[in-house]
Write a structure and sequence with these properties.
This protein is of the alpha+beta class. Helices cover 14% and strands 27% of the residues.
Length: 237
């Protein structure tokens, strides 16, 4: 199954021909090559490092580029030179294509045909692969928009516009977990052997980024001080 693959076949200056998810998965033909096939360029995705190898190609109109996803879980997502680590609206996005521990034999591939000589820019949107590792790729770089400049811009992008939520430090987490929790005795009823119960926990009952005001959650996140306070209340009958 291809995750999040765009239904638009002809995208910005490229045509996606095939997507293959590896192993015994069927090859999904997205479109027939609109032009006579020129040179075939092979690019590996992932492997020893978070990178495309090579990280740029000079392609003529009609040339075909085959991206082989060697390892881990990466994407091939179209962006622009000015916003390296942001998805280009209407551009191509392969979605995440996993090949954990190189288990897929043969490995997944994405095949595209170049339909313009314009410079085209791509990145991997897995976690911080773009902003930290500079995992970007260029088709037809120019003197003013070189691959080296694109990589540098991607890493700079990560220190400016891509900065969002700051994760708490270990000291902050310990401090938060040590805070005195506010606990209200719960209520409960037993009907047909099943217990329906409820309790209220104040904002100090959970570490930062867990519980109140957070999405999802992990079991066992209540601090030891909260557990001690519950134990002191005694077991309800």
């Amino acid at each position: 199954m291809v995750n999040n693959v765009m239904t638009v076949i002809v995208t910005v200056d490229i045509t996606i021909i095939e997507i293959f998810m590896g192993n015994a998965a069927p090859t999904v033909t997205m479109a027939k090559a609109p032009l006579a096939t020129g040179v075939i360029h092979n690019v590996t995705v992932g492997g020893l490092n978070n990178e495309y190898v090579p990280n740029f190609v000079n392609a003529a109109i009609g040339d075909v580029i085959v991206f082989t996803f060697l390892e881990d879980n990466h994407t091939l997502t179209q962006s622009t030179f000015n916003t390296p680590c942001m998805e280009l609206p209407g551009g191509f996005d392969s979605g995440f294509i996993p090949n954990l521990n190189r288990a897929a034999i043969p490995p997944p591939t994405v095949k595209m045909q170049v339909t313009s000589t314009n410079p085209l820019f791509f990145y991997c949107k897995q976690e911080d692969h773009c902003v930290a590792d500079g995992m970007v790729f260029t088709i037809n770089p120019t003197a003013n928009m070189s691959e080296a400049a694109f990589i540098a811009r991607a890493k700079l992008f990560g220190t400016t516009t891509m900065t969002t939520v700051t994760k708490p430090t270990a000291t902050a987490m310990v401090s938060t977990m040590a805070a005195t929790p506010s606990i209200v005795a719960g209520t409960g009823t037993i009907v047909n052997g099943q217990c329906t119960c409820a309790c209220l926990c104040g904002t100090n009952a959970f570490p930062q980024f867990a519980g109140v005001g957070a999405f999802g959650g992990l079991s066992g996140m209540a601090p030891q001080s909260a557990l001690a306070a519950v134990a002191a209340m005694g077991t309800p009958t």
